[in-house]
Recover the amino acids of this structure.
């Protein structure tokens, strides 16, 4: 009885607050496409710049021109879709920089994070964390935290996905239509890139780094 | 005190090792060294899962020096057990279970290498309660050994002074020697014989560790369109911070919870998104553990 009451209470809780995302992009078609993509998530409410709701936005998605012309209030967290390469330094209210062609789900994720106050940056060289005291487990999580995400080639990513299903080299070769020798070569490259001692270790590391579905 | 006879003690240790020798086998691992295996029962051998390369043909060298091809029946990364079935063996003895062990009890680790018997002895360093492995396996007892062994002993039996089987020797993090207890192996073997694999809990999400000040969690980086996480309404960018009210520091801790017993369980995840925390009810899916 108690558990069904608890469930009923949970269900009547109000839906999560929808985040207002203002889109300030020179390319009107791209802006509309993105608005459609963001509107597909039930927690995001996209609006186009100039429609009067800009002041109330939780987060803004802008291009280089809109950023320079200060189209959005300096209080609003900004996700910049930049055509310039090497634009990695995050400054002021720019909380994330993504490539101009970034996919809708990535923009949505960056918008959620920026609205929560997170700065999203590309992984650089690992920093050393100095802490005087904490338990072994969070120490291990901290280690994962500072691992640069290994860059796998598209082929290696396919091989890793099959590895995670427990496929032996022979099966990997057959599924990807490559020779067993080539499959072995890819597996060896993955182990080196992940710093793994063996297959089991590679899968565990890949799971912790978001390279394999958990 | 004067009763103690060093050479009798020495022979007693060697006798314990010799008693187990007929059940031992070895094979060549992908690092071109050998690892140990031993006869469990009914013609099945167990060894350390990490030493076995997937899908490669395994050639077991028995104590007699005879080499036979063996099939990999299955592996369980949550307990570190791999089960092997050689084409035909008969008349091999199996090792009976040891009684209770205490810290300080004598332990003899034995193994094989190309038909040669290996043995080393020391003491049981620690006996603790059940614990959960990195891949979510429930390990019945924490048994650490104060024994210095090399990689050739990996997958071999650890015996008590009466020759009873305490468990299988494995290397933990930082190459610490630990024992996978008898009863844990027994459960893994039963599941592998029945299904060929061990299940794991499945969320259908790619996770990355994330930290903001003192709070930590696992951020959803990608979603399986047909997975439980997507069905439960998780989005890319959401941060999982708790599992059934217990804080989750990151993917490592979450993976530890997604062991074989989590498959099919109804769980409440606490999720941070857009600065607000909400509860998400999710039914954990199931995948073969590999």
């Amino acid at each position: 009885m108690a558990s069904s009451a608890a469930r009923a209470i949970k269900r009547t809780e109000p839906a999560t607050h929808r985040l207002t995302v203002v889109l300030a992009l020179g390319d009107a078609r791209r802006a509309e496409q993105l608005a459609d993509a963001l509107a597909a998530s039930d927690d995001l409410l996209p609006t186009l710049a100039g429609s009067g709701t800009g002041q109330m936005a939780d987060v803004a998605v802008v291009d280089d021109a809109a950023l320079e012309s200060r189209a959005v209030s300096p209080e609003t967290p900004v996700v910049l879709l930049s055509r310039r390469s090497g634009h990695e330094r995050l400054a002021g209210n720019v909380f994330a920089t993504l490539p101009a062609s970034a996919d809708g789900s990535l923009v949505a994720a960056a918008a959620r994070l920026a609205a929560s106050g997170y700065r999203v940056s590309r992984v650089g060289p690992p920093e050393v964390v100095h802490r005087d005291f904490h338990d072994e487990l969070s120490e291990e999580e901290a280690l994962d935290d500072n691992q640069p995400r290994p860059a796998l080639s598209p082929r290696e990513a396919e091989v890793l996905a099959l590895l995670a299903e427990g496929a032996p080299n022979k099966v990997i070769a057959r599924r990807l239509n490559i020779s067993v020798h080539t499959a072995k070569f890819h597996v060896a490259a993955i182990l080196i890139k992940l710093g793994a001692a063996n297959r089991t270790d590679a899968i565990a590391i890949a799971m912790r780094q978001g390279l394999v579905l958990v | 005190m004067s009763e103690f006879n060093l050479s009798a003690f020495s022979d007693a240790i060697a006798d314990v090792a010799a008693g187990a020798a007929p059940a031992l086998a070895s094979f060549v691992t992908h690092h071109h060294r050998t690892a140990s295996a031993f006869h469990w029962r009914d013609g099945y051998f167990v060894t350390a899962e990490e030493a076995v390369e997937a899908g490669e043909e395994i050639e077991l060298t028995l104590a007699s020096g005879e080499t036979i091809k063996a099939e990999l029946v299955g592996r369980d990364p949550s307990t570190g057990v791999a089960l092997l079935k050689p084409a035909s063996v008969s008349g091999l003895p199996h090792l009976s279970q040891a009684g209770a062990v205490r810290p300080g009890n004598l332990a003899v680790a034995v193994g094989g290498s190309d038909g040669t018997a290996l043995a080393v002895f020391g003491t049981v360093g620690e006996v603790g309660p059940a614990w959960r492995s990195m891949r979510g396996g429930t390990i019945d007892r924490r048994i650490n050994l104060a024994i210095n062994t090399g990689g050739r002993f990996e997958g071999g039996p650890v015996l008590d002074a009466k020759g009873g089987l305490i468990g299988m020797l494995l290397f933990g993090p930082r190459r610490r020697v630990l024992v996978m207890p008898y009863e844990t192996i027994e459960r893994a073997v039963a599941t592998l014989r029945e299904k060929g694999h061990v299940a794991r809990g499945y969320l259908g999400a790619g996770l990355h560790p994330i930290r903001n000040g003192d709070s930590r969690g696992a951020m959803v980086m990608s979603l399986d369109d047909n997975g439980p996480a997507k069905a439960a309404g998780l989005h890319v960018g959401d941060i999982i911070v708790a599992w059934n009210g217990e804080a989750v520091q990151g993917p490592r801790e979450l993976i530890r919870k997604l062991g074989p017993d989590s498959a099919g369980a109804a769980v409440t995840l606490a999720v941070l998104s857009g600065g607000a925390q909400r509860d998400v009810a999710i039914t954990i899916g199931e995948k073969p553990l590999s």
In short: Chain A has nine helices and five strands. Strands of chain A lie at 19-24, 44-48, 59-63, 78-82, 94-99.
